[in-house]
């Protein structure tokens, strides 16, 4: 049985070390183009390993401006077969809900998709919302923060999901949405030869006319949240508290603090 | 507008309410003004976790008891929450920004067609509007986010951001609900849950690290530290001089020419705190340091400091946590 | 970065940075100490297609130009100079096969060059740069060539499996042959005990009655000097890239240290004596990079690049040595310690004044070109 796998990826800034313009109070974006969200590489690697095992195709899907092309090509240079960029002025200003909606509509348009993979979260906005939102719109099971994925494409798969202080084993059948932790694998590099060849492949661009979308649910219009302001936080130096008394007394005091911080 | 409700989703792991739930109750009460703080608890019929929650004094606990909730999936919980939200129209719903919270909340968000802000570090109300402060770009930028036109307003909050305070004076209403439609999730089943201590081999990704420096380099200190590391599920890291110790190598080194670490807990034993070392620990959350030298610079990078002998401290630690 | 890279070159650059940060950087000091590359590292290099970077796509390579390959060498050199040096030795040899081999030989050897390391060999024990004093020779018998003699100081000697070798085909003529370590009569000799560039083996080869078919001759009979010169000019672009990489490495170490080292409560970056050294290193890096990138740009544009390439090497070789020395001074006593990663930069950089032609030879060549090109305006 061959699998049709979609991997949703995002381009993020090269560095998180952004500055705020002191006058306009807006983010100063560097001229440098972005890089692929690191967790998305793990999702691509997971997809390519499943493809190696079961056959099929891996399709990349991303929503963003035209310069996201580079990240899609990088995914193809890792070995993905096809790439679609959801790009339109109308999609602009989307929050996670509007993004998840458009991604889900694109996956529906592709049809007969068995598995959707995403990185556990993006390293810029850090929301981890898009995976579950896409799952809900597709009406599929979601398995988030997965560190291990095994099984038979037809008979069902098993995922290990890592939570803060426990792990779950989850059995599921396709189609499903899985978000991937970096613990799952070591992503392959796009090789120089595949990089060259990725530039010979075509990237399909879909806009709101290519998809069946409700115009009120896309872009700024379809986004319930509004960013009112941004600022740079002030990092405070640590203020140390001296533990007093004998080592026993000091340890007891420390353990009280560790319990309060949920470390024990 | 006294009928407005702030909901807190009660998260539990292996039968225990998670501390973040209590932290959220306390914070919600602080900012509620005249709104009611309502905890939503899903549990199996043999459990009474509402009794623990009562100690933190929400106005109400809504309990849904059903044995199918023993190992419910994200989508099942989200469906039940959506049904409840349809009935009671809360002003806002708060989750812990844990794996579970960050998985259920967005699924619910999509069902309710509303906004959600993840991983908040602060919450406040401006009349009915929930002002959500969230870090972005790896905590380099803070954003103030609101959801003006959709209800409920949803947020998840980073654990240990707020302090939980017990409030035994509040009279708590417990409302049991047993007429929800349980939409069984298809094609997915949680088959096993196991506790987890250490989840990573690399010291760079470790959640707990015990670091040894020149002041804790003898055989006894190393042996005791290894024993404590096993008990706490921690990894052992070392300063540069200890990379020559037969047990350690450059892979275990913390600092400028070694690993940068970001554990939730870092215990420095006999580490003096040279800059080459402290540049590698800037992202550690709770830092505890033990060193004989009261002037050791490491104390300036520590939440808790103890001036004394590392071996005695280790012996006490192992004795007390027995 | 001053040169405009194409989109695929930018992606390559990102990939190389990612790869070298993860796979090479952590091994920098180990490679120096062990005088070798870990075997897994070479497997990863080959699996990820670094040997085929400049080989045309029809031969299974990636077909990148010298702008991309010198950028790649630079990116490697920032993390470990000898890794870059070994790649340089391979690329310049592959380039000569590409330019001078018959189609049949290209069909046979270029696909192999994606996973076998190539080397270029001209120096002999008896004579340095005066190739006409060489004794190793090729003698034609019917439609075969019989190869005999010893070669020394070969970059990648012992590591490489295929060599371009300059041999005398008459007392006044040098020709270039492709020799495979699998050929009967081929033997690797000892490895030089150098003080730096410790990952890259430099060694000798022995040829005893090696019989090769006519098509193992690269180019024409007597074209050896030209092929050798071309290999040298290509190598000088790469040498500039290695020098710039070492200089950048020195800059990173010096700045990181200076930011954290405090004197009387203030970081030493506030001291003019430290700022001056950091500035010297930064200027050296920028200059060297501009020179090798300009040489690469000229080569891609089909223009004469020998002079600028030679400048990149001669300037870069001294500037990187001085930069590593400045960095040592910034670190003070720590810089002089073998436990800090500066001293090996000095030893590595020193090689660049010798390899691919001595500094003095570079100076003479540049002087000749500069003087010649001005003759007419007098």
Question: What brief labels describe this structure?
Answer:
heterotrimer, A: 264 residues, alpha/beta, Rossmann fold, nine-stranded mixed sheet, two-stranded antiparallel sheet, 15 strands, 27% helix, globular, C: 378 residues, alpha+beta, Butyryl-Coa Dehydrogenase, subunit A, domain 1, Butyryl-CoA Dehydrogenase, subunit A, domain 2, Butyryl-CoA Dehydrogenase, subunit A, domain 3, 3 domains, four-stranded antiparallel sheet
Task: Please tell me about this protein's structure.
- The complex is a heterotrimer of chains A (264), B (322) and C (378).
- The longest helix of chain A has 17 residues, at 38-54.
- Chain A has helices at 38-54, 69-78, 96-110, 130-138, 192-198, 247-260, and strands at residues 3-8, 11-12, 19-20, 27-28, 35-36, 56-63, 82-86, 115-119, 142-152, 156-162, 166-172, 176-180, 204-206, 226-231, 241-242.
- The mean pLDDT of chain A is 91.
- With 264 residues, chain A is of the alpha/beta class.
- Chain A has a single domain (3-222), classed as Rossmann fold (3-Layer(aba) Sandwich).
- In chain A, a hairpin with a 3-residue loop joins strand 9 and strand 10 (156-162).
- Helix content of chain A is 27%, strand content 28%.
- With 322 residues, chain B is an alpha/beta fold.
- Chain B folds into 2 domains: 5-177, Rossmann fold, CATH 3.40.50; 199-321, Rossmann fold, CATH 3.40.50.
- Chain B contains 7 helices and 18 strands.
- Chain B has helices at residues 19-31, 50-54, 74-88, 99-112, 219-232, 275-278, 310-320; strands spanning 5-9, 12-13, 16-17, 36-43, 60-65, 92-96, 116-120, 122-126, 129-136, 141-146, 153-157, 173-177, 188-195, 208-212, 235-238, 265-269, 286-291, 304-307.
- In chain B, strand 2 (12-13) and strand 3 form a beta hairpin.
- The longest helix of chain B is centred in the first third of the chain and has 15 residues, at 74-88.
- Chain B starts with a strand and ends with a helix.
- Chain C has 378 residues and is of the alpha+beta class.
- Chain C folds into 3 domains: 7-114, Butyryl-Coa Dehydrogenase, subunit A, domain 1 (Orthogonal Bundle), CATH 1.10.540; 118-223, Beta Barrel (Butyryl-CoA Dehydrogenase, subunit A, domain 2), CATH 2.40.110.10; 226-377, Butyryl-CoA Dehydrogenase, subunit A, domain 3 (Up-down Bundle).
- Helices cover 51% and strands 16% of the residues of chain C.
- Chain C has helices at 7-24, 28-34, 39-47, 66-79, 81-100, 103-109, 224-260, 272-300, 306-331, 343-350, 359-374, and strands at residues 118-121, 137-141, 144-155, 162-170, 173-180, 186-191, 202-213, 217-218, 262-263, 266-267.
- In chain C, the strands form 3 sheets. Chain C has a 4-stranded mixed beta sheet with strand order 1-4-5-8, covered by helices on one side. A 4-stranded antiparallel beta sheet of chain C has the order 2-3-7-6, covered by helices on one side. In chain C, strands 9-10 form a two-stranded antiparallel ribbon.
- In chain C, a hairpin with a 2-residue loop joins strand 2 and strand 3 (144-155).
- In chain C, helix 4 (66-79) packs across helix 7 (224-260) and helix 7 runs antiparallel to helix 8 (272-300).
- The model of chain C has no long low-confidence stretch (mean pLDDT 93).
- The chains are: A alpha/beta (264), B alpha/beta (322), C alpha+beta (378).
